Amino acid sequence: MAQNQAMDAALLTLAEMGEADRLTIAAGTPGIVLMERAAEAIAETVLARYPGAERVACLAGPGNNGGDAYAAAAILLRAGREVRLFHLVPPEKLQGDAANAAAAYDGPAEPLAAFDAQSFDLVIDGLFGAGLARPLEGEVAELVERLNAAATPVVAIDLPSGISGASGAVLGTAVEAEATVTFFRRKPGHLLEPGRSHCGAVAVSDIGVLSTALETIAPKCFENRPALWRHRLAVPSDAGHKYDRGHAVVFSGPASRTGAARLAATAALRAGAGLVTMFSPAGAVLVNAAHLTAVMLKRCEDTDELASHLGDTRLNAFVLGPGFGAGETARAYAEAVLAAGGRLVLDADGISSFKDDPEALFAAARAASEARGDSEPALVLTPHSGEFKRLFPDIASAEGLSKLDQARLAAERACAVVVLKGRDTVIAAPDGRAAINATGTPWLATAGSGDVLSGIVAAQLAQGTPSFEAAAAAVWMHGKAAEAFGAGLIAEDLPGMLPKVFAGLEATGP
Ligand SMILES: NC(=O)C1=CN([C@@H]2O[C@H](COP(=O)(O)OP(=O)(O)OC[C@H]3O[C@@H](n4cnc5c(N)ncnc54)[C@H](OP(=O)(O)O)[C@@H]3O)[C@@H](O)[C@H]2O)[C@H](O)CC1
Ligand SMILES: [K+]
């Protein structure tokens, strides 16, 4: 059940989508039938979203994306719309299903050069989809720029032309659509920026591609939805004790910088850790004591004191980094926690502390994961792009890597779950599993928001959720908390929204 629902959230590579098509066609559904259904889905979206759009332009490229445009044009013509089709290559040059679709269309067709967006109420973009192979240039690039400058709404077929389905990158230039109709499953480029913003509202149409094909294909990248992790979350039981829900620890920074750790600690408690303790340097104990209530407080002045605290094996999840200060102490504490068998969320200054010797961190993470014996990553890294660059400079600067590729490579190298933050946060595990998040609002880009996230991750780890699922769940919840609050959000507001998020999670399906 959980497996099937997760498969609904799969994001397919070009090769995986091609394989799903191939298996479907081999099982008896001809390609032209898939194209016809794709066209019906596009026409349905157009008629439902733009009931008043009379003058419709269909732009048709040289491949099957263009074939979909011809087939959609034919349906809209039959529905009584004033349709004109503009083609990048003459119809007689098309091949296969696209040639058949073009032959079945008997409305007006002209070369692309005759297209003027101002003369239409709506434009259907069928220039390029999954087959985009290089940057747009010349006549097509100029046309796309004129189209974007015009006020005419655009519905894109499969992907806005110019957007890479694999990475969400703009190749040359790309269509800015109001809506995009894709088929069978989304692709990473629908969720990764800037692709996500170019897509507008995405509708996924089931055109009859066999979903059982996914069992053979076994995709490893998913939209971050509860189906991925809800079955791995700990549910507090009636007979449970607070120790059943784990004991999280947050390291506080010095007296003048304790707020970030308190945000993380409060979030950890709200997110379900049974107990949360702040480990504070001596100089910050008073200021922390003055602010904490349910969160407990312990002095932790140096590695000796830390070693003695770590003797308590009930302390099982740690947050190090928010407001902590970068340097030798952070490195020593992180290594000590991992060596003691704790699971560690390393954020902010904790990440930056390893910029001169990332390999030391990766070696500690590898040793900790091996010592666990269940190959479960003991380390969760939560960098924004600047922090990511400090630990993985070569991956960050390599040409042609998507955010998804970057997070996956980093996770493998660091032997850690990597949460590469942003509007399109990617969560990646060393074994190649990845999730792209779609919850949240622009208000999440606020001071302290990341500190709260690290606390929510730690709460899931403390309760025994595996690291990938813990991180993915936390990112989703963090985004949902922001959505639940709405405008005017500051980081302090997020923990208080978590009860609503949990209630919503219980009430809804995947
Ligand atoms: N199950 C499904 O998802 C179905 C999808 N359908 C639709 O099919 C397209 C994919 O079709 P495909 O033919 O593979 O690819 P495209 O139509 O996107 O584009 C390929 C052609 O475009 C040329 N190309 C590529 N990049 C450029 C560029 N920058 N400038 C100019 N021309 C370009 C490419 O030329 P090559 O020289 O590289 O060969 C091709 O001619 C999918 O997106 C759906 O819309 C099916 O209708 C049904 C099932
Ligand atoms: K397109």
TrEMBL record:
Keywords linked to the UniProt accession: ATP-binding, Isomerase, Lyase, Metal-binding, Multifunctional enzyme, NAD, NADP, Nucleotide-binding, Potassium
Citing just one GO molecular function, the answer is: ADP-dependent NAD(P)H-hydrate dehydratase activity
Where AMP is bound, by residue?
A: K421, G422, R423, D424, T425, G450
Q: Binding residues for (6S)-NADPHX, per the UniProt record?
A: 64-68, 129-135, 158, 260, 323, 384, 451
> How is the co-factor bound, per the entry?
Binds 1 potassium ion per subunit.
Family named by the database record: In the N-terminal section; belongs to the NnrE/AIBP family. In the C-terminal section; belongs to the NnrD/CARKD family.
Name of the protein in its database record: Bifunctional NAD(P)H-hydrate repair enzyme
**Native organism:** Jiella endophytica
